[in-house]
Predict the structure of Lipase maturation factor.
Amino acid sequence: LAVLVAPLRLLKWRSTAWRAHDGVTFWLVRWLLFRLMFASGVVKLTSRCPTWWGLTALTYHYETQCIPTPGAWFAHQLPVWFQKFSVVATYVIEIAVPLLFFAPIRRLRLFAFYSQVLLQVLIILTGNYNFFNMLTIVLAFSLLDEEHVGRWLGRSKRRHASSESLAWPPSLRAILSTLLELSTYGFLLYWSVQCFGLEIDWEKRLLDSKVAFTYHEFTTWLRAVTLPLVGLAFLSLSWEILSAMYRCACVRGCFWKLWATLQWAVFATATVGMFAISLVPFTYIDYESNGKLWPGIHQMFNAVERFQVVNSYGLFRRMTGVGGRPEVVLEGSYDKQTWT
């Protein structure tokens, strides 16, 4: 993906800081992030691991992972009800929130970005997985836009403030956008409460949670949403391609317009090809949906499979160390009777 996202510097005298097709190739990074997070959440339930289904995975995780950090000790001391709620939050961030990666509303994508970064930072604080979590955060930057990053760097604040002062009364589009955003948050909260039986016990001052659906219900839901998710991704990609084509038409100068259009055609074709072959490993989460893909897509994937251009994902499918963490014990004795 970095090959496609990196600037194409064939014409040295022309600035390549921005290209009309950047949104198309950058979309593939967002699609990779979606496949990584969504599949990682799904496999925890399709594996039938009792700790993930019982929401007790984190009561084992902090002390049985490979290399705990000092922060893992403190996390392990947290009460059981909080550990179970943390598992629920993990499901929400990995299964539900990734759907917002393709939301047309900018603030929903920013909410999804900060949710993913929060999860990765918490993992970094409680476990050592080398640069893996850093790479995931890098992928999450595909959810941002130039204006938001500009705020981090102290740019565009004055322009943004002046535009806000002129934006009153709010337009119908802004009102509908806000209502849709609030409705999404409300539905996300309602879905979480219903699916995980969230209930506050005021007497014990804790939050009860449990998986309120069966394995059959989950697999039925997964089968129902897998192909529609492919359709959602295709619509999102189509929008990016059409938007890039419009940006090519807006480039000044006949030669540069033609050059931008040529680049758009090449990179859009490569992006569609990458997206098509990625559908095969993505639909491994539901083999019935995998079998419904167009045979040509399977043929394309089989032709390049040996290069591992695209892959399937599924992190922490089963919680390790549930039966206890193996420890090496060295004993010595002076009298062969008392061992220390």
About this structure: Residues 160-166 have pLDDT under 50 and may be disordered. Residues 30 and 142 are 5 Å apart (CA to CA).
